């Protein structure tokens, strides 16, 4: 029996060594899988950071474009205001010229009548 128990003792030690080696292999495998997982997560994080930076830059660009749009709109409004003032001034000048033209036509008629009256006067 003593031989059996010592044999069991050696087998038990061998089994412990094998179990320990198996645990170490599983730990190493798990460590490698974790390293791959960490690398994948880091890549995803880097990509997310890049998208976030792009998103922030895009928002800033959009805000800048909105400011430009507002400035262009204000400039258009000012320009259209100046243009409208010029149109109003030209219309006013046109009305004044029409009024003067009517006055001249009236004076022309009056002068023709005076000439006709003077020509038909008995002393002429």
From TrEMBL:
Basic and acidic residues bias: start-end ranges: 93-113
Entry protein name: Uncharacterized protein
Organism annotation: Haptolina ericina
Species lineage: Eukaryota, Haptista, Haptophyta, Prymnesiophyceae, Prymnesiales
Region (Disordered): 93-124
